[in-house]
Amino acid sequence: MFPMILFLFSLFLSSTHASEQEFCVANLKLPPTPAGYACKDPAIVTVDDFVFTGLGKAGNTSNIIKAAVTPAFVAQFPGVNGLGLSLARLDLAPGGVVPMHTHPGANEVLTVIQGSIVAGFISSANAVYYKTLKKGDTMLFPLGLLHFQINAVGVTSVALVGFSSSNPGLQILDFALFGNDLPTELISKSTFLDPAIIKKLKSVLGGTG
């Protein structure tokens, strides 16, 4: 009886090992599902699926927030599919800011590699945590919490950012309120802001209503 149990156990281990998949490079030719992208056929996977070269180049900060985020999420970096991680580069020109925003799908860790950045987040208990980060400093931003980054010096600041998801998601508070067609009256009632201020912000951020 024992030899039979041992044989079945070894058979189970071998079949489990054979069915293990070490990676699941995203097949970007197919639409994503709630569980992520389907896997590319391992026979056509190459080393380039596991290499991303975009983080070495500065982003274009000539925009209203004077900031640029270069993502290395699953859509740009298929090798991270299913691994629960991704990266990004943040460039903040002088006066640059990433407004209050959330990542509904990931925790975030930010490391300053150039310049200085004021960064912080607000907990669900409305406790505020912020600090001026210098080169080499790292800060964490828990999943789903509102947080921000602001250039703290007169030169471009740069940070590398890591996420605990291959697709962390993003919602910027200012654009969620003032960059769409949500009626001014409803925004005013739900935020206590003056309608004139709301209309002004809508005109700047592309909203209507």
Automatic annotation (TrEMBL):
Any single Pfam family the record assigns to this protein: Cupin_1
Localisation: Secreted, Extracellular space, Apoplast
Signal sequence interval, chain numbering: 1-18
Main location: secreted
Binding site residues for oxalate: H103, E108
GO function terms (MF aspect): manganese ion binding
Tagged with keyword Plastid: no
Name of the protein in its database record: Germin-like protein
Biological source species: Dillenia turbinata
